[in-house]
Amino acid sequence: MTIPIALSIAGSDSGGGAGIQADLRTFHAFGVHGTTAVTAITAQNTLGVTAIHPVPAEVVRAQIEAVLTDLPPGAVKSGMLATAGLVEATASAIAGLTPPNYVLDPVMVATSGARLLEPEAELMIITRLLPLARLVTPNLDEASILVGAPVRTPEEMRAAAAQLVEMGAAAALVKGGHMDGDELVDVLCDKEGWTEWRHPRHLTRSTHGTGCTLSAAITAGLARGTPLRPAVDDALNFLWRAIASAPGIGTGHGPVNHFVDAPRHPG
Questions:
Q1: Of 45, 52, 104, 265, whose Cβ has the fewest other Cβ atoms within 10 Å?
Q2: Annotated catalytic, 210?
Q3: Which domains, ranges and CATH numbers included, belong to the chain?
Q4: Do residues 92 and 117 make contact, with C-beta atoms less than 8 angstroms apart?
Q5: pTM for this one?
Q6: Is 77 a catalytic site residue?
Q7: What value does the mean pLDDT take over residues 103-115?
Q8: pLDDT at 112 over 80
Q9: Among 15, 16, 85, 209, which one carries the catalytic annotation?
């Protein structure tokens, strides 16, 4: 039996709700074997991040090379990269993949508000990683940083997504989870045009790791051979139900429920 493989290049979350922990659970839910390259060790829980220890770039590069030489992934995602050196190491590895099938989750700010990326690394995300991405998945704050303008409304989300494609990404999914209101709006722009998803908002504090989970679910779909738009549709469906049935653990922003069934469009 051949099983699809995906690679997550991301940080470790000691609370288990985000980062590589969330990615591996999501890959598993979609029937994909998950591999990892750990970029940073964080001390965090549902209340926030208290310490970050970046892994040396050469060690991250060695992890990626070890996976690529023996367990070639059908798709790759990156999450928390923390430093400019880690961005460069990731870009060098991704540039050598054919096809890249690369999902860029530009992790810059945690749900708790903690800054997770050095300021000098932000420009490198734009210049080195964005042009390699089959899809970039910023939230509103991250989209604002990437395009250099406020992104708070559906109209601004569409403009930002289009600008990110103009900046080099093959497609951009701007996530509206931080928008005010009773409805969640997510906007995808690619070479075929626009797609917009709307879901009722769940009134819950269990939103830790939502960005990691969504990008991992899309990556899993791509690894399975699912086209981009159906992969995004499956991922949003999975995340919405994972939030709805979150276990409610922790006293802050708790994790979502990665045990929900994952919808799978055929590859």
A1: 265
A2: yes
A3: 5-244 (3.40.1190.20)
A4: no
A5: 0.95
A6: no
A7: 77
A8: no
A9: 209
